[in-house]
Design a protein that fits this description.
The structure is a single chain. The radius of gyration is 26 Å and the shape is elongated. It has a three-stranded mixed sheet with strand order 1-2-3. 55% of the residues lie in helices and 11% in strands. The termini are far apart. The protein folds into two domains: 78 residues, GMP Synthetase, Chain A, domain 3 (2-Layer Sandwich); 53 residues, no CATH class. The longest helix is centred in the last third of the chain and has 23 residues. It has six helices and three strands; from the N terminus they run αααββαβαα. A hairpin with a 2-residue loop joins β1 and β2.
């Protein structure tokens, strides 16, 4: 026989969903995502650009950094970061933090990609020169990189030539 619930037993939908996720073993993932969202506020913009929380398991937060220098620096700040994260979470969710190298920011070379947002201006002789310069390269990946750099640089120079007063 079904249980009858009266209107006085209404529960917030968040509690119902959390209970359903918990039954399916997804509660830890939800808590992990909640902690990851707190990371930028806990460490600030500069550190956020150089780090990425990777996982959280049994009270240990694993964070990837862009270099060993950041691992070293963050190691000294570990206790402050842990306290701030726990304070923002409202409970002691993080007991330990491990930093490792391995994070590669998507927009790391933003300043070098300025020409990428501009229209590429190439003449036929430019295309021919680029093809001639890169055809001798055995490594196709390297050849593509050199092509991209050459196109970007030629385009940048052409756009500077077109601007008056230069």
């Amino acid at each position: 026989m079904r249980k009858k619930y009266s209107q006085t037993r209404l529960q917030p939908i968040g509690d119902i969903l959390f209970s359903a996720f918990k039954k399916r073993g997804m509660a830890a993932k939800l808590e992990e995502n909640a902690l990851f969202k707190l990371w930028p506020e806990a460490v600030g913009a500069q550190i956020t650009l150089q780090t990425q929380p990777e996982s959280w398991h049994a009270g240990t937060l694993f964070v990837k950094t862009t270099s060993s220098v950041w691992v070293q620096q963050l190691h000294f700040m570990k206790n402050d970061i842990r306290q701030k994260m726990n304070q923002l979470a409202g409970k002691t969710a993080i007991k330990e933090i491990y930093f490792t190298v391995g994070y590669k920011p998507a927009n790391k070379n933003k300043r070098y990609n300025a020409a990428g947002s501009q229209k590429i201006i190439l003449k036929e002789r430019d295309k021919k020169m680029i093809a001639e310069c890169t055809e001798a390269l055995a490594d196709r990946e390297l050849a593509e990189i050199v092509k991209r750099v050459m196109k970007s640089e030629i385009s940048r120079r052409r756009s500077l030539e077109e601007k008056p007063g230069r």
